[in-house]
Known about the structure:
about 90 residues, about 0% strand, mainly alpha
Amino acid sequence: MRERGASSALPPLYFLHVWWARRPLLASRAALPASVLLTWSESLARFLKERELPFQLAEEYQEWFVELCGILREPVAARAKLARARIETMDQ
């Protein structure tokens, strides 16, 4: 709303520039590590098992990647935990 109100005298191409200048945070956060990390395969599983690393299954590897990107699995539950923590800190 602020952008539209402040630029009413500017040509419509200005709106296109503002739209293109935005970067989706979640996609950007996932694209960077995904471009560096290996795709899960049987050879990767053997390599990790030889070095005793914690990923033995593809699901564990995917879960780690999701956590690395900062994606909350259950945002409603996470918000409820944050609300409880705020209430508890205010009570103290």
